[in-house]
Structures are given as C-alpha cells and as structure tokens.
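Human: Note token order:
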Amino acid sequence: MRVLVIGGTRFIGPRLVHRLAKAGHEVAVFHRGRTRANLPPSVLCILGDRHQLANHTEAFRCFRPDVVVDMIAMTEQDARSLVDTFRAIAKRLVVISSGDVYRAYGLFTGLEQGPLEPIPIRDNAPLRTILYPYRSKASPGDDLYDYEKILVERVVMGESAIEATVLRLPMVYGPGDSMHRIAPYLRRMVDGRPAILLNETMAHWRSPRGYVDDVAEAVALAVQNPTAAGQIYNVAEPIAFTEFEWIARIAAIVGWNGRMIPVPEAKMASGFNASQNLVVDSSRIRTVLGFHEITASDDALRATIDWEQHHLEEHPVDYQQEDALLTELSL
C-alpha cells in the first residue's frame, strides 16, 4: 500500500510513519521542511505548504497514494483543498479530528448552554451547535481563528468521490507534546511545593487522554483496514482519570509527597463548567479495528515525565499568588 502523510514530522506523525514503514508500506510525507524528524530512510519527502496542496498535484500523482492521511486539516478550506486535490488520485482519506467537536465540549468550555450531555460520549453523540470554538482567543489570519473540526469532518465525509475515515482524538500526551500538558503539575513537584491547588470542581473532572504511541497505532490501524472507510471513531484510553487521580499518578512516579488541595470556586475560578465530564467511549475502534494500547499505562506516563523534566525551564512559575492563597486558607 502507498500512503501519503500530510504533516508527518511532529509528535504523532513520525510515530505513525515508522509504524507504516515497518509494516512494509511505501510512505511519503508532505511537509514544509521546517521541522527535523527522525523518519525512516525509505520515506519519500515532498516539500510544500499545506495551504497550497494543488500546486503539488503532479508530485502526488507520481507517488500514486492509495491512502492519504491528513494530520493537520484544521479548517473548512483545508478540507476542501484536500478532497479537491485527491479525489482523482487516492482511494481513501484518513483525517485527524478532535473530541472538541462534541456538544459536551461546548458545555465544558461555556460555548453551549443547557442540560449536561450523558457520558460516556459515543461517536454518534450530538456535536456543538456553535462553531469556531477558539475564535474569541484569536485574530483573523491566526491559525485558531478559522479552526473548526466539525466543518473539516463535514467536508470529507460528504465527498462522494473519495471515501474518508475520521479519528476523533483525545488530549494526547507523551514525549514531544508541544502543549506540555503535565508541566504545570510536574513543575510544582520538582520545585518541592508543599501543595498543588485545584479548583474543587475541576479536581473531580474527567477527561479523555491518549499516549502518543498508542494514538499513532490507532491511526495506523485505520489506514491499513479498508473497513474503516466511511467511519468515524473515537480514540481514548479506556479509563478517564479525574484530575486528582492524574496528579496522584504523576506524584507516585516522581516521588512527590505533597498535598492536593481542592479550592472553592470563589477562591480559584476555573473558567470551565467542570460538571460536564468528557469521558469518551472508544469501544467501537477496539471492536471493529482491534485497537488496544501498545504501551503499559505507567510506562507511558513515566516516559512523558522523563521527557518533560528536560523542558521544565520553559515553564517558570511565580508562586506568590499561590503562597498568598495557602496562607489565606490557613494551609
């Protein structure tokens, strides 16, 4: 099988490329050439801008991909250029989406109003009715201004000339995580803080997570399995830990013995409706495609911690306000 990966040089992408190449597939990666990645020597690199796919049609035709994996389709225009470029070239698309498409996410962030969504969130659960979830934090021309995975999904799944598979990803953690998701907690543990303060509702909030190698495995399965055509799958670990549980797991590995303290909303506002949990049901990709985690849970978190410890200098913290709050709470 010939597989073209668009944006395969960061975080999940290289791991996916290695899996596909190891499985014997012929792989090409389309990227800008700005990010150095440890890709297998057999991989063909096609350099170009994601926003100018049509300019590289001839190179794509020469490679003749059976499947195109788009790791970085963020906007409706990205999706339209994808289907316009490949409808006469490839047999199938695999497009990376996000759990932020769900109405439950809109309720959590305050975009949506109304009753809470039931959990777990299945892949046929209601989507947000309000589009562009991050526009209020961006300006025209910014990447986030026109970001909308709902529209990406709508375009690729509505294209009749080429079949598509959509994977809705969780919060992905692991070595190379540009979001540095565990850094705020790890920083405090390494600094020997006596306590970690959390909004009392957020402390019990449950969210979907996935280790980067396991997520890459899920994408690889969708690429290699023709029955995935026309399907949408949730990807997430089977257990959605609360924030308290997540911190406790990090603490156990690091050896931090401080306290985790819930703080009332009036003293520490979260800005979120943490009553809406985001527990995701990933049973269908497990049943249909045979997905399962390939990394032991503790090993995944340990590898993440080991990598993040080398980047903590990027996350300095001023503890003045925390110390004042600790004093106010008489802790």
The mean pLDDT is 95.
